[in-house]
Amino acid sequence: MRYIASLFLLILLSIFIFQAWAIPAKAMINGDDLMNEKPEGYPVATLAGGCFWCLESEYRALDGVLFTRVGYMGGESETPSYEQISTGNTGHAEVIEVTFDPKKLNYRDLLEFFLTKAHDPTTKDRQGVDTGTQYRSAIFYHDKKQKHDAEKMVAYVNMNKIYSNPIVTEVVPAETFWDGEDYHQQYYEKYEKKNGQPHMRVYLKQQSKR
Fold it and tell me: Is 54 a catalytic residue?
């Protein structure tokens, strides 16, 4: 009798675990500090890690993030459009610019989140099904300290073998930020508002390798 009861509890536990695992992740809830307009006098981080829709939704969930916008950086042509950079021939990457409050969230925190949670920094010119140089992993630093912190964080992640493969993230100076089209800005939130239901996230964090 005790064996049957134990078996029954084990079956119930297995069902519960399977259901919890099978629930699709939803777009992240926004952090408490977000503003509708970019505030003046705060530092920014500029990051590239695949589709900028996905990366932006990740960062807008963090307390201490004040404002985000998506766009293009690192290419040759001026005033690039989404159609142009989608060819992979302009040299631009899809990027997110994060304005943050360093009293709540410092630059190193943003880098650690970027390299260990927000995307897979070990796949060159690719994130999931998105392939091309526009989807490369890159940290665009704005000053010498950001460069130092970025290089140190990449070395730390590599040294601790957080991933089975080495980091391929570029650490390069920031260039002109070209704003993405309006419909790309805060895409997931616009989708939710339009459809009246949470958008099921298509971005899978690459934590299985950790």
Answer: no
